[in-house]
Amino acid sequence: MSSPDVEGARRAAEALQNGGFVVLAESGAEDAEGNLTLAAQFATPAAVNLLAANANGLVRLCLTDERCQALGLAAYSADEREWQPTAPISLRDVAGTGASAEDRARTIQAAIDPSRQRDDFVQSGYVFPLRARPEGVLRRAGRTEGAVDLARLAGCLPAAAMSLVMNEDGSVAHGPQLAAFAARYDYPLVTVADVIALRRLSEKLVERVTSARLPTDHGEFVAVGFRERLTGAHHIALVCGEVDGVEDVLVRVHAECMGGDVFHSTSCTCARDLQTSLDVIAAEGRGVVVYLVAGDRVPVRLTRHEEVDAGASQMAEYGIGAQILAELGLSTIRLLSNHPRTLTGLEGFGLSVTGFVPIGG
Length: 361
Ligand SMILES: [Zn+2]
Known about the structure:
24% strand, seven-stranded mixed β-sheet, 2 domains, 10 helices, Rossmann fold, six-stranded mixed β-sheet, DHBP synthase
């Protein structure tokens, strides 16, 4: 598995913003499928023709739940986990049957135009809408949601035209074939996970909900509770001393590891890292331990506990951690970590790492 590529997602958003195509893959896996994707507002007849040539003529139009409702488009499936195609549509007053690239482009433009009503369309047409879930990829990590979210992140209308990438022999392109296709035409290749990572980094996702004094064996802390707005997951920041507006605050971002933190498993260093961090911060009289609770977002960390320190793979979690730190009024931090590295993306929260402090071991 490759790690989420936030920069890749940014490049893809930029391409969409400029009216370009991107290849949106369901994942980085060998058997992943992908779609050639365009912000719907740039769906000209030529662009629709190019999309159609890649997908047996089927051009999908990813729309928000809100827009689907306004157009009277009900999904065939009620299963919230599945993709949700609706009845195909055509604009009622197109010149031809609705099938030409020009007619389909007009249908797409009308479908994303708020002044157009459901009566402006006939069902059983030539453009195939897909309903994206409210909250997008944070609700369902699918390509429909990924395409709509990426268009929105690009500053475009939240709608995307796309078609499944197929090989010349008519088979569906997977993993390496998708990558080759994207490289051949110089399209950015982006995965749904990349889009999720970008959203977690670029949106305000946490709110402070509670705080309480927490005397510990290590010293006196204030436990501040945070809630992720979209997932409902709760996290805790243990704050020692005055940190609001202070420079170079000592910080540990710790991802929950039930095996280590609670049961003191000897198969990982989580418990020791956490205890040591609390000691070091208490001794300095100032600092923050952000404790990221796994919740239902990530499986309980029994074996995957090295992830946060393992590189850029958990930038999404660092995004949440960074937002919590920003909410606490921190701007420059010294990070308690045995794995110093560049943390791109933190700047998005007005946060920068001025140094690394090893936890020891
Ligand atoms: Zn652990």
